Queue: 2 jobs
Job 1
Amino acid sequence: MGNGWSWYVIALVALNIGGCAWLLWWTAKRRPGDPKPEDTSHVWDGNLTEYNKPLPKWWINLFWITIVFGIGYLIWYPGLGNLHGYAGWTSQGEHAKQKAAYDARLDETFAPYRNRPIDALAADPAALKLGRSIFGNTCATCHGSSAQGATGYPNLTDDIWHWGGSPDRILETVLDGREGVMPAWGPTLTGMAGENAVDYVAAYVRTLSQPDALRNDYMAAQGKALYDGTCVACHGPAGKGDPAMGAPDLTDGYWLYGDSNDAIRQTIAKGRHGSMPAHRALLGETRARLAAAYVWSLSHKPAAPNKGD
């Protein structure tokens, strides 16, 4: 707050307190010519009389005590512009104090799970319960409460992992986030093979999960040459992708941005930019580890016991 505004607040507070004190003093006085307390001449229905009796002294004194208390409060706590209160109290300091207390309680709660392996946490029901709660508070906004994702947000309950599905890779994703970038190939492909080039590549990409379809598909056959010249660097010759850079496997039939012709064409022509935020600063390593364990457990269900066991 600037000094001008600070002095404005101080003056406004002083004016209000002084005004209240003056009003209390002025209205409590009896003046010459005032009617007697028992005689105001305000009578209704012959026997209902309005008296002019002053407030009791104890009531008046309570008003004065309130004013004195208010002045003391403003001196003790910071309530006069930029002036610091005598107690040194600040809302920022109070927040920091309470946060430190809550952080200590959280550390105590999560201490048993610190640095434990992801797969071990996934086998611990108490750890999974905490991980599910953390997931619901921080991850469900994008991936859904059931973790099945949506268009542009991966399904975490299947066995398809663009950045790798090992416990360590999942923890790395939660802690440090991911940036998945698919370049816009429309101008390049159009320059190579004309206005139908994107359609050719889209047709070929579809056949990667159905190799036999390539034999009788003219557009896909044209698209293979274009794919080999532009896409293999990330997705590989067979379309299996590369988890090291987040390039998806094009042979599994899973389409993060939709499997319609328009969606695939847009991905090829205009590219995509998927961002998974880093949660290290927000959650800390232990809570991120619990969330990763819960996510890993969704696609690694424990084997059902044999009936004979």
Job 2
Amino acid sequence: MRNSHFYPIGTPGQAWGAAELAQWRARQVRQRSYADDVLCAVDHLRERFDVAPYGEVTYADERFPLFAIRSRHWQAHLPNVLVTGGVHGYETSGVHGALRFLDAHAPGYAGRVNLLVVPCVSPWAYERIQRWNFDAIDPNRSFRADSPAQESAALMRLVAPLRGQFAAHIDLHETTDTDGSEYLPAAAARDGKPFGSHGIPDGFYLVDDTANPQPAFQQAIIEAVERVTHIAPADAHGGIIGSPLVAHGVIHYAMKELGLCAGISGARYTTTTEVYPDSPQATPEQCIAAQVAAVCAGVEFVG
């Protein structure tokens, strides 16, 4: 489907300028609290983990401290695992899945793996239930040198000293109905391009790295998640979100080339999870549980 009048901001065929960006910002309404939902949960983890700030996101008069949670007794001989959530702030189950994994499951892996977990990469977007940051930039296309996204740059600085030392990186995401109704149309309007939609897959799936495919790792996660919620089937073209299906519930993306979060660690095993919270077959609780199952399976695989 292509439509030249698909978004209420901007002129078809023209990229946004300052006026359009201001209009878009005016539409963004704070709907929940990063401090209440995330920082309070992080505070409760301080007795069991090392919790440290790794930066701050500042937009206009708002300041958001960024926190990372590490295994308390980091041991050089153990495999390191990076878990990230909330790169897209509107993808709720990734944030709460990372926090629940830390609270309920991570202590059981003490002495088996070293964990570095960042539960909410994009706090401004978390509060607005938004994919982009304040500057209408997608952080998950901005993990590259001289990143224009504060959130992406801060996370890369955190990870840089350990880059190449991770066994696995699990990045927690969602695919929602608003991808088709809001975010893809907004991106096309912002960039002055025509909007072409694709279907939204009903179910959980994974994105593996085109340059470093690890099918056994992906399969282990799919098998674990399938016990919690359903896996997305292929669409009529044999793919998911426009990419060919390479295995049950798995597609490939060029992670580094696209500036994706899962490409920053240099880990051998990387994956991006995609939960579908709008499915009539899944509840919010199942979506969080699916993220937790994915992380546990990934940790088990390397630890």
